[in-house]
Task: inverse folding
């Protein structure tokens, strides 16, 4: 059941993005930026937390979850450090993904040959 | 013929069936990445006996590693041609954009090539993610102060 939910939600977000891509002049960069902003907006009233509870990895894997995690880490830190927590906790939850992308991206760039 | 007329003409000549096919493939590939993510997530949850929240970073690291390797081997870009948004919307697309920008600029050197070009395509996600989260975060912080 979890797998079906993950498939449907992840697929649906990609479908919406593809429809925007095909019916506008936006580049993938524009669309991913829009979806990140949307993700952090949906965290404003804890909507995205409910989506994760229902769809599990389906809600965690699209780029919208990146915006949600940034916002979530920032808000968690404000409980302890007040307004400074927004900057102090911003990367608390996304650190793993960004570190992995930089590290593995660098290693792959060193080890592999460009193909285009 | 200026740019506008050209775009209009190109739009008219574009077969309508393509858009439906593109949407279908985006849904399919995006969904399959969701299933893979769910599988990896449940594997780590069972393996270390931890909650979903704790297993999430492990799942993301694993998928980012897979995406970087597939980009290096040239497979991810082949998938992306067919899947479109199905491959650039998941977090794997972020890893792919960083790896491919770094690879493409490898010839310019370690610092000016790989180092400074890595975020050329993917950086926008981080910039707008932080700006929007900070602004909305301040709004929510103020609401909680008075609420």
Result:
């Amino acid at each position: 059941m979890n797998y079906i939910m993950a498939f449907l939600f992840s697929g649906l977000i990609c479908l919406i993005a593809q429809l925007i891509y095909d019916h506008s002049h936006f580049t993938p960069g524009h669309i991913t930026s829009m979806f990140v902003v949307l993700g952090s907006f949906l965290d404003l009233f804890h909507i995205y937390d409910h989506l994760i509870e229902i769809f599990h990895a389906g809600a965690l894997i699209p780029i919208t979850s990146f915006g949600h995690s940034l916002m979530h880490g920032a808000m968690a830190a404000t409980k302890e450090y007040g307004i400074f927590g927004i900057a102090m906790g911003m990367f608390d939850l996304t650190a793993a993904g960004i570190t992995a992308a930089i590290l593995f991206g660098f290693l792959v760039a060193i080890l592999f040959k460009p193909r285009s | 013929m200026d740019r506008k007329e050209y775009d209009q003409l190109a739009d008219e000549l574009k077969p309508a069936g393509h858009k439906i096919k593109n949407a279908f493939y985006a849904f399919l590939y995006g969904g399959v990445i969701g299933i893979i993510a769910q599988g990896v997530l449940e594997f780590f949850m069972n393996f270390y006996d931890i909650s979903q929240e704790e297993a999430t970073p492990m799942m993301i690291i694993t998928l980012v590693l897979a995406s970087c390797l597939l980009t290096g081997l040239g497979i991810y870009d082949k998938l992306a041609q067919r899947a479109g948004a199905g491959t650039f919307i998941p977090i794997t697309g972020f890893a792919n954009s960083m790896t491919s920008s770094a690879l493409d600029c490898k010839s310019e050197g370690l610092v000016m090539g790989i180092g400074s070009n890595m975020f050329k395509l993917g950086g926008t996600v981080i910039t707008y993610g932080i700006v929007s989260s900070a602004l909305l975060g301040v709004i929510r912080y103020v609401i909680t102060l008075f609420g």
